[in-house]
Design brief:
Number of helices: 9
Structural class: alpha+beta
Number of strands: 6
Largest sheet: 4 strands, antiparallel
Order of helices and strands: HEHHEEHHEHEEHHH
Mean pLDDT: 86
Radius of gyration: 40 Å
Distance between the termini: 55 Å
Length: 452
């Protein structure tokens, strides 16, 4: 039954999965930015940083502690000092001079309210640190989205290029097979040597290898897109041709690149931590109020109450006061931590300068690539026309017995390459424009040009 259910599911899913999925480059980029897990990871980090701000702001709220307890214990007490310890339980009351194991009930219940009315800027400094962390996380989202959009756009252009190469290579295979039939007929008529038939078969096989390689590149590009889009199948993903004509790249300052924004946010985060350390060596002013009750079955004359005496707090007190705490010898440690943060700031500034230099270098390379791609696109039609004429002439000379198959093979290879160059020329310009948009950190102007 399970096997039959699987077969039915496969048969039902087959026609659906065979339907082609046609997407434009802008759709691919948008879906990848929405669905790729790394973007959700960055968003979760922003959510965590935002919660960190809320956590830092809770320091402005009063602190309320409540406690209640009950115990059955002996009541022996002695004079003398004890150093602070977590082992020996404290006991209150007069020294009775007794040492017996009579036990009584004791109970406690109380509440302590602590509020810091004055902090000399420490709490706001901690909120600023949390805010700087959130801004860095937000910059990380933009950088992650740019990375995902870049991968999606490059894979899309790679898929288009592979399909153009496959079409041109397939046309070359068709031409080679046509010539192979002509050569085979001449060889069988003993008008040409058999070596020429072997040569044209080798050329046909080489052209078929070129088709196979183009199909492999297309399959790899589809696999990348399927990974980015979260699709289970890749064979049915069909790209839409690019619309519009490549124009002048949109001008944009490199300062808007998410890499630079994220690195600048890292510098601001370190500076916020330094300011928080500056506020750390200050007194802590605490306004406190307490209310509590205690009960005990032991009496000051040495007697004890009934069995239930002390189970409930029957003596109450309240208090309100103001205290100041100051760690006088904390300054050396704070200075050491601040030196650490200063070193971190120098590190982040050096990284910022490194990113600037790398982006400037990438921009110069992208601009040089665009210039070369535009020149190649202008020269591709001339190359294609000349290759077609040469191939026609070579084939005519061969059929007239004025040349060998080598000349035909050379011109056919040149024609196939010219057709590939023609098909990739415009895509090369688009890819160069994409490279400039990536360096600038914003793909939207590029996507807008493609749609026009």
């Amino acid at each position: 039954m399970v096997r039959r259910a699987w077969i039915i599911a496969i048969l039902l899913a087959g026609p659906l999965s065979a339907q082609p999925l046609s997407l434009g480059i802008d759709e691919v980029v948008a879906r990848a930015m929405q669905q790729y897990p790394s973007v959700r990871v960055s968003q979760a980090q922003v959510d965590a940083a935002t919660a960190g701000i809320a956590l830092a702001r809770t320091a402005y709220l009063p602190k309320v502690d409540a406690a209640a307890g009950i115990n059955r214990a002996t009541r022996n007490n002695v004079f003398g000092l004890l150093l602070p310890s977590q082992v020996i339980a404290p006991i209150s009351g007069p020294v009775l001079g007794t040492n017996d194991f009579t036990t009584v009930w004791s109970s406690t219940a109380g509440v302590l309210i602590t509020w810091e009315p004055l902090d000399l800027g420490l709490r706001q400094a901690n909120v600023d640190v949390a805010t700087a962390s959130r801004e860095r996380a937000r910059a990380g989202i933009a950088r992650t989205q740019l990375d995902v959009a870049t991968m999606a756009a490059e894979a899309y252009l790679t898929l288009l290029a592979a399909e153009e190469t496959e079409r041109a290579a397939q046309a070359g295979v068709t031409r080679s097979e046509t010539v192979q039939k002509i050569v085979g007929a001449l060889v069988r008529a003993e008008l040409r040597p058999g070596a020429e038939e072997s040569r044209i078969k080798a050329e046909t096989a080489a052209a078929q290898n070129q088709v196979i390689q183009a199909r492999q590149a297309a399959a790899l590009a589809r696999a990348t897109l399927a990974q980015l889009l979260g699709l289970p199948a890749v064979a049915n993903l069909q790209p839409k041709p690019l619309g519009g004509k490549p124009g002048v790249p949109a001008s944009a300052a490199l300062a808007g690149n998410p890499l630079l924004l994220e690195q600048n946010a890292a510098i601001l985060e370190v500076q916020a931590r330094e300011k928080a350390l500056d506020k750390s060596y200050v007194p802590r002013f605490l306004l406190q109020g307490a209310a509590y009750g205690r009960g005990s079955g032991a009496r000051t004359d040495g007697s004890i109450g009934g069995f239930a005496s002390g189970l409930a707090p029957n003596y109450q007190n309240w208090a309100i006061g103001f205290t100041v705490n100051w760690s006088l010898f904390e300054l050396p440690a704070i200075r050491a931590r601040k030196e650490i943060e200063k070193a971190h700031e120098r590190t982040e500034r050096a990284r910022y300068e490194l990113v600037v230099r790398e982006l400037n270098g990438q921009l110069l390379k992208a601009q040089a690539t665009l210039t070369a791609a535009q020149q190649l696109a202008a020269n591709a039609p001339v190359e294609l026309e000349a290759a077609r004429a040469a191939n026609t002439q070579a084939l005519a000379r061969y059929q007239a017995g004025l040349s060998s198959i080598v000349d035909v093979a050379d011109t056919q290879r040149a024609l196939t390459q010219a057709e590939i160059d023609q098909g990739l020329a415009q895509l090369g310009v688009w890819r160069a424009l994409l490279g400039i948009a990536i360096v600038q950190g914003n793909l939207q102007p590029f996507l807008q040009q493609v749609k026009e």
